[in-house]
Automatic annotation (TrEMBL):
Residues 117-186 form the Aminopeptidase N-like N-terminal domain. GO terms for molecular function: alanyl aminopeptidase activity; metalloaminopeptidase activity; peptide binding; zinc ion binding. It catalyses: Release of an N-terminal amino acid, Xaa-|-Yaa- from a peptide, amide or arylamide. Xaa is preferably Ala, but may be most amino acids including Pro (slow action). When a terminal hydrophobic residue is followed by a prolyl residue, the two may be released as an intact Xaa-Pro dipeptide. SUPFAM superfamilies: Leukotriene A4 hydrolase N-terminal domain, Metalloproteases ('zincins'), catalytic domain. GO terms for biological process: peptide catabolic process; proteolysis. Its EC number is 3.4.11.2. The keyword Lyase does not apply. CDD domains: M1_APN (cd09602). Residues 511-802 form the ERAP1-like C-terminal domain. Belongs to the peptidase M1 family. This is Aminopeptidase N. The gene is pepN. Keywords: Aminopeptidase, Hydrolase, Metal-binding, Metalloprotease, Protease, Zinc.
Length: 816
């Protein structure tokens, strides 16, 4: 069935016409125990403000029967059921079947390879509930939902609200859940399976954790951390927004073959890759905290108050991304969360914002298909950084007061960006219209530099800057290091802004623009001090100051103003000096990426060896050992490094897998090693690790097998696609990889199948970074014009990065 994408005009007309009173959804999962089918009966009670008018309900599942006020209906062929001659009060009943639970949208059936147990999850953003049952699938038609679920007797069912009544029915059980609050359809969920469950009563909340049985030991290991973070987050957001989470039960369900996490009200669904099979590194623990807090922030911003239409999707996601860092620093032990954000996702946002996929943060969205294409680095990390700047601009106390007013005013309804701007303007006394236009309606990134005239300093923008508050830090030498001697906040209102209060030039070694990382802007060092700036990045005293300097180095690499050798040496020096757990891992990834993906062939080995040397040194520190050895597994220069790695890995199965991937890439026979690790690895998904090893082999048969299983048959869970793809696309294997660049183009017309997350992952992670040239990139962009919007946008962003990599690899002054 070819389904139509809901347009904004259609959604606005339905919202004018209808008032949805409630959904009663009866779901039968018993057919999933040994088959593919989910059966649903959706009963929708709704009012019509214009009796006699007509509209439609969304239903992309197979319709068995449909009646409106007792009269039979004829389904359309486009995923809609026409609703003619509406009464003032209506009851719609639709019985439907969804049989594509392996690759379809909305609902997924996964079988655990460890024990053959079946697990089922549902996920509906942006408009995938319609693939499971009949509904008005748009965010502003909110209503209570009552779920009744029949499932196999050995299964546990989770949903949004409260404690269900459970009735035994022979080989099945029937779970009747209380009504939810008024929710958008996409915020609802049902998950089921023979879960391992852990519960904890904390501060008046009933907290639940669920995972497949084969991961019970891992869930038990992480449970205390998860409960602690959940308690801290609920307390922080409840106080910050002057609105405690209004439901007692808060569940978090970790499921197989899921991408990321989803903020379903009161019942967050996670990919169970977040339950690390190996002992988590500090950065992995921090990522867990940030994702947990991101989804929790959506309880208020997204669920309790929902954007009216998908043009404010950016606000929904950017606010949660901002709030998770805010909460992590203020309420948890992860006090370097913003430094980690700068070292990781924010660098991606800077790169995306200067490419062809850049767009204003807030933009018109014609239909839901277009909305699915903007879950990107502009929406998430740039949006989060812009909201951090907004809090800086108005002041945190007034920001909190504005958010409190916003939630109080719009709770259980829908709102727009203007509603938020109005609330913040009222409490801050600032006219934010110019701020809104400059930051949200205009694409691109401001760039600043400094001019000295004697001891006078002027902040100079490249063009007309956005209104913003940022800081300039002055640093002087103290032995071999730098220490900060002044920090001056500056409110930018025009192209040139005097900076007063800085020490004299003779007392200053480095002036750091955007110190403390308060805004979303890039900078450039004084040309005369350019080389010294690159050398000084590692000498700065804090993770944030080193991160700001590294962001400048990275930005200059991506724009062709610095070579990979220069950038690689600078970032590797920062890595050697770094002290923050939040920053070491993203910095290690960045240094390795520069060596592997950006360096000319003649420079790659030396830059990789430099990163490996730092990893060997870091491994001597017990607190850094695990991270350092993982870095060494990626950058090992030959048999000696691999032998050292295997010796130090001990019982760490994860490290042994990583060493095998590198050994395979370097041409070792890894057959016996792979079989031995498969035999001893308790991970139920260890087969994916074995496929990753095979993907790295410089062998035609291995490449053909992996491509078929990864890209064509889609055997790899979406959460592991990137891992396998990274091992498949390796430098120095161009002759082997060239045919697959063409095969990627052949996939484009169907990459959207399976929904938004799958489309983004496959379109981005399978795009070839090697064995291509600029002409290929142009061909790919042309081919993508006919692809789904989410595929087209993902390809455009990724292809721009690859073009920049190609330019960097081709620089004649690569070693500078």
């Amino acid at each position: 069935m070819e389904t139509r994408s809901l347009t904004r005009t259609e959604a606005e007309r339905r919202a004018e016409l209808l008032t949805v009173e409630r959904y009663d959804v009866d779901i039968d999962l018993t057919g999933l125990l040994d088959g593919p089918q989910v059966r649903c009966v959706s009963t929708v009670t709704f009012g019509c403000r214009e009796p006699g008018a007509e509209t439609f309900v969304d239903c992309a599942a197979q319709v068995v029967t449909a009646t409106l006020n007792g009269a039979p209906l004829t389904p359309g062929t486009d995923g809609r059921i026409p609703l003619p001659a509406l009464a003032a009060h209506n009851v719609l009943r639709v019985e439907s079947v969804q049989a594509d639970t392996a690759t379809g949208e909305g609902v997924h059936r996964a079988t655990d390879p460890a024990d053959g147990e079946v697990y089922v999850w549902m996920s509906f953003e942006p408009d995938e509930a319609r693939f499971v049952w009949a509904c008005f699938d748009q965010p502003d038609l909110k209503a209570p939902h009552a779920f009744t679920v029949t499932a196999p007797a050995g299964w546990t069912v989770t949903a949004n609200s409260g404690d269900p009544v459970v009735e035994e029915r022979g080989a099945a059980r029937r779970w009747t859940f209380p009504d939810t609050p008024r929710l958008s359809v996409y915020n609802t969920v049902v998950n089921a399976g023979p879960f391992h469950e852990i519960r904890r009563q904390v501060d008046g909340h009933d907290l639940g954790l669920f995972a497949r049985r084969s991961l019970a030991a891992v869930l038990e290991r992480d449970a205390e951390e998860l409960f602690t973070l959940t308690r801290q987050g609920l307390a922080f957001f409840g106080e910050a927004f002057a609105m405690p989470f209004p439901q007692t039960k808060y569940d978090q369900v970790f499921v197989p073959e899921f991408g990321g996490a989803m903020e379903n009200y009161g019942c967050v669904t996670w990919s169970d890759v977040f339950l690390r099979r190996a002992e988590p590194t500090p950065a992995e623990r921090e990522l867990l905290a940030r994702v947990l807090l991101h989804e929790m922030a959506h309880m208020w911003f997204g669920n309790i108050v929902t954007m009216r239409w998908w043009d404010d999707l950016w606000l929904n996601e950017a606010f949660a991304e901002f709030a998770c860092h805010w909460a992590a620093e203020r309420a948890t032990r992860y006090t370097d969360a913003w430094a980690g954000h700068l070292a990781g996702d924010k660098l991606k946002a800077y790169l995306a914002d200067r490419g062809p996929a850049s767009h204003p943060i807030h933009q018109p969205i014609h239909d839901v298909a277009q909305a699915a294409s903007i879950f990107d680095n502009i929406t998430y990390p740039k949006g989060a950084s812009v909201l951090q700047q907004l809090m800086t601009y108005v002041g945190e106390e007034r920001f909190r007061a504005g958010m409190t007013a916003y939630f109080a005013r719009h709770a259980w309804g829908s709102a727009t960006l203007q509603d938020l701007v109005d609330a913040l303007s009222e409490v801050s006394g600032r006219d934010l219209d110019a701020w809104r236009t400059a930051w949200l309606a205009t694409a691109g990134t401001d760039r600043f530099s400094l001019e000295r005239d004697g001891d006078g300093v002027t902040l100079v923008a490249d063009g007309t800057p956005r209104p913003q508050v940022l800081a300039v830090g002055a640093y002087a030498r103290k032995g071999e290091a730098l220490h900060r001697t002044a920090l001056v906040r500056v409110e930018v209102t025009g192209p040139r802004t005097p900076v007063t209060g800085l020490p004299s030039a003779s007392d200053t070694a480095v002036l750091l623009i955007n110190d403390e990382d308060l805004t979303f802007a890039t900078s450039r060092p004084d040309p005369a001090g350019r080389d010294a700036f690159f050398r000084s990045a590692a000498l700065l005293p804090t993770p944030i100051s080193r991160g700001v300097a590294t962001a400048t180095v990275w930005d200059m690499l991506t724009t062709g103003e610095a070579t990979a050798a220069e950038a690689g040496r600078s970032v590797t020096a920062v890595l050697a000096a770094e002290t923050s757990d939040a920053v070491i891992e993203p910095c290690l990834t960045l240094a390795s990426n520069i060596a592997e993906q950006w360096a000319p062939d003649a420079e790659r080995a030396a830059l990789t060896a430099a990163v490996a040397a730092v990893c060997r040194d870091l491994a001597a520190d017990p607190g850094r050992r695990q991270v350092a050895l993982r870095g060494l597994a990626r950058t090992a220069t030959g048999p000696d490094d691999l032998a050292r790695l295997r010796e130090q890995a001990g019982d760490d199965v994860d490290l042994h897998w990583r060493a095998l991937v590198r050994a395979a890439e370097l041409g070792e026979d890894v057959t016996a090693g792979t079989a031995a690790l498969l035999a001893r690895d308790p991970d139920p998904d260890a087969r994916v690790r074995a496929l990753t090893v095979r993907a790295a082999l410089p062998d035609p048969a291995a490449k053909a097998e992996v491509w078929q299983r990864l890209a064509v048959d889609r055997e790899v869970p979406v959460s592991s696609v990137g891992q396998v793809a990274d091992a498949f696309w390796r430098p120095g294997q161009d002759a082997l990889l060239a045919p697959y660049a063409e095969r990627y183009l052949e996939l484009l017309p169907r990459l959207h199948q399976g929904g938004m997350i799958l489309a983004m992952v496959f379109a981005g992670r399978l795009f070839p970074p090697y064995a291509v040239d600029a002409a290929y990139v142009e061909d790919a962009r042309q081919a993508a014009r006919e692809a789904a919007p989410v595929v087209r946008t993902t390809l455009l962003e990724r292809s721009d990065t690859v073009l920049r990599m190609l330019a960097s690899r081709a620089r004649p002054d690569g070693g500078r």
